[in-house]
Amino acid sequence: MRIAGIMIPDEKRLDIALTYIYGIGRNNVKNVLTKAQVEPSKKVKSLSEEEQRRVQKSLEELKTEGDLKAEVAGNIKRLKEIGAYRGIRHSKNLPVRGQRTRSNARTKRGKRVTIGAIKKEMAQKMGLLETPTAPTGGRAK
DSSP assignment, residue 62? Predict the structure, then answer.
């Protein structure tokens, strides 16, 4: 079964399979299935054509997949443009909702990058330091 451009797995129960659609969670599934008058415990492959049509009809009223993703992206873009705190956090790839960043936030910030001290010899090889000049044997006048 294909709904909203997504292939729904045939072997799963209908109430679980519908959650594969972006924007449809367990709560929305209950509402959709009661409106479509389809039993949630039915397998997807055992649905009749009429039941499939009723489920698709009740899903059309909800914002899913591309429309929902576009709306979320638009909201984030608006926050960035107006310079809101949440927009700044989005643009810096940091957690937006007040989570700590000192010890966690790995899923948002990515893999750790160790920034350590560089020894003088290594820094000279890399060209970060100037090479020391040999002192002259004369006295300062």
Answer: S
Instruction: List, in sequence order, every residue forming a beta bridge with 7; answer none if it has no partner.
Output: 2
Question: How many C-beta neighbours within 10 Å does residue 14 have?
Answer: 24
Beta bridge partners of 87: none
Query: For the chain, where do the domains classified as CATH 1.10.8.50 start and end?
Result: 2-61
pLDDT digit string, tens, across residues 6-45: 888 889 999 999 999 999 999 999 999 999 999 989 998 9
| Burial of 78 per CB tally in 10 Å (0-12, 13-18, 19+) | exposed
- In CATH terms, 2-61 corresponds, of 3.40.50.970, 3.20.20.70, 1.10.3860.10, 1.10.8.50, to 1.10.8.50
What pLDDT is stored for residue 117 in this prediction?
75
- Residue 6 dihedral angles phi and psi, to the nearest 5°: -115, 135
